[in-house]
Write a structure and sequence with these properties.
Layout (H helix, E strand, L loop, with lengths): L5 H4 L5 H22 L7 H12 L3 H24 L1 H5 L6 H20 L13 H24 L10 H16 L4 H35 L5 H37 L1
Helix pairs in contact: 2-7, 2-9, 2-10, 3-4, 4-7, 6-7, 6-10, 8-9
Length: 259
Amino acid sequence: MYRLEREQFLHFPYVPYWAMLGFQAGFINAFGFIACGRFVSHVTGFGTQIGLAVASSSSILAIELLGFPVSFILGSFVSSVMTSVKIDRGIKPKYDLVTLLMPFILLSLMLLSHFGAFGIFGDQLVQDRDFALLFLLAFVCGMQNGCFATLTKGQIRTTHLTGISTDLGTDLARTWFGRLSPLDLHLTKTNNFVRIATLLAFTIGSIFSVIVCQKYGFMALIVPTFTSIIIFFGLRKIQSDLDLKLGPFKKSNLEKTAG
């Protein structure tokens, strides 16, 4: 209930939003690295870095690095409270509220940086204010990933490429060598197209981030702020479509269950 089936989220009107999410994640990830020397949109690398820090007896650094995956998880947790938890309790999820918080946080970070809250753009990760900036960016990425993974039953994941690449390879094998029904074959090919588009958009977002950051520094955050506003309105449209498909009778049942 209140989730998109594969037949729905692969429709063309929705596909550009998934690509835009990939672009946004790539931009934020590169921004974090250029601003403070750390990527923020995935947790795999931090597991390795924490292990290296512990092995070299850099316990303080290991604790600080632990903040990145914790921030990402916390962002996903907050998203889940407003989405999947509500679905489990028979209440209409607040996907739009999650996507409204994202541009609010990004815009706040941009304004704070403009008034010197995060020091000089491009400084290496040495002060608490640098960690605060990156932790909040990781939090936003966790919210984004959690929200849209819930909406699409785990099929759309845009803040890192490991899962997308794995799914792409798996479904390419199924497309070429499997015995899929015509409908399943069509949907699998379309899904692969969406994954490739997300991969490319993530890369383009990273490239664009480098170009914009070199010229505007912290103010480059205006780009993901703008894209997240577009995503917010797009999500409003998707949620409206879900309301229409759910119908008034089922919606009233959800409300009774919530009561």
